[in-house]
Amino acid sequence: MIGLARLVGGARTKFNRMLHFPATEKNKGPILEVLKKALPQDREGLALEVASGSGSHVTHFAPHFPRLTWLPTEIEDRNLQSISAFIQHTKVTNVKEPVILDVTTDPRGWGGGLGEGSLTVILNANMIHISPWDTAVGLFAGANYLLKSGGYLFIYGPFAIHGSLTPESNVKFDQYLKSQDCRWGVRDIDDLEKLAQTNRLKLHQMVDMPANNKILIFVKES
Ligand SMILES: C[S@@+](CC[C@H](N)C(=O)[O-])C[C@H]1O[C@@H](n2cnc3c(N)ncnc32)[C@H](O)[C@@H]1O
């Protein structure tokens, strides 16, 4: 009995590392629907998630794409622990243990050296506006080097369109972000398209999402 109590206590401690972000729990369903439409379920290869946060997204999406192997990444240690706990808790079989990644670093070193053109998908949610512009630059540089021809880069979040940010709640959110850190702020798709052009990517689709967010789908050119 003592052994069992210890085991249960240990397991509980591990699951306690699971973080729960309300926005992530709300948007994971709608994001999955877009992924299912954009990505054929027989698509094979490696899918890298940049800035996985709690790990709730990757463990929710992966079972729907059984032929993809998912590699979650994070810069924060407590998030890395949460992702591992999510993997254990959900028992998903096609999600690897997370690896530490600062997206502003040279993509040749990502994941210990994944290799040029090794990825089918890169997914990133709610990062580029809650961090300096360097993270967007790094994300596109990573997609340039690591995505294979025809591979997808999905970016979820709020965006301004040709200099116009709507509705008022997004304007207020942008002001709030800038008050937290002047390097943060909602990004404009024009600036992201410029980054795409210099990184062999093309904006393929822009999908409206609940709560005034969008998913931008970029495709790697040959
Ligand atoms: C708002 S959270 C979003 C997490 C998750 N994608 C989600 O939607 O729930 C932003 C994430 O960006 C990560 N982040 C910030 N700067 C980063 C960097 N330079 N490299 C990688 N991740 C970074 C943070 O650790 C944090 O988990």
Describe this structure as you would to a colleague.
- The chain is of the alpha/beta class and 222 residues long.
- It has a single domain, classed as Vaccinia Virus protein VP39 (Rossmann fold, 3-Layer(aba) Sandwich), CATH 3.40.50.150.
- It has helices spanning 2-16, 22-38, 56-61, 77-90, 134-146, 168-180, 189-197, and strands at residues 45-50, 68-74, 99-100, 119-125, 147-157, 159-160, 187-188, 201-209, 213-220.
- It has a seven-stranded mixed sheet with strand order 3-2-1-4-5-9-8, with helices on both faces. Strands 6-7 form a two-stranded parallel ribbon.
- It starts with a helix and ends with a strand.
- S-adenosylmethionine binds at residues 21, 24, 51-54, 57, 74-76, 79, 101-104, 125-127, 130-131, 135.
SSE order and pairing:
Elements: H1 2-16, H2 22-38, E1 45-50, H3 56-61, E2 68-74, H4 77-90, E3 99-100, E4 119-125, H5 134-146, E5 147-157, E6 159-160, H6 168-180, E7 187-188, H7 189-197, E8 201-209, E9 213-220
Parallel strand pairs: 1-2, 1-4, 2-3, 4-5, 6-7
Antiparallel strand pairs: 5-9, 8-9
The structure holds S-adenosylmethionine (SAM).
